[in-house]
Amino acid sequence: MVLALSVAALPITAVHPTRILGTEPATAALLTAAYGLGSLTGSRVFFASTLAARTEYAPGGRGQVFI
């Protein structure tokens, strides 16, 4: 829940200082999009490694994905 709040607050926090710093709001949007893509990429590598670990180290049976 804390992580979801921080991710939801990021675009607002990124755009707010643009007036103070004198930068374009599009720059903040680009940085927020890059942050989101980085998070997505990291969660995909983590998910893949979790599945690989389950397959490799699952005691007795096969690795399964539980939804």
Describe this structure as you would to a colleague.
With 67 residues, the chain is an all-alpha fold. 78% of the residues lie in helices and 0% in strands. The chain is built from 3 helices and no strands. The chain is elongated and about 60 Å long.
Q: Which structural class best describes the helix and strand composition?
A: mainly alpha
Q: What order do the SSEs take from the amino end to the carboxyl end, as H and E?
A: HHH
What sort of overall outline do the alpha carbons produce when their principal axes are compared? elongated
What's the end-to-end separation, in Å? 20 Å
Please tell me how large the radius of gyration is.
19 Å
Mean of pLDDT? 81
The count of DSSP E runs of length 2 or more, i.e. the number of strands, is 0
User: How helical, in percent, are the residues?
Assistant: over 70%
The quaternary structure here is: single chain
Q: Please work out how many helical segments DSSP would assign.
A: 3
Give a short account of the largest sheet. none
Q: Which ranges are low-confidence, i.e. pLDDT below 50, for 5 or more consecutive residues?
A: none
Q: What percent strand? A: under 5%
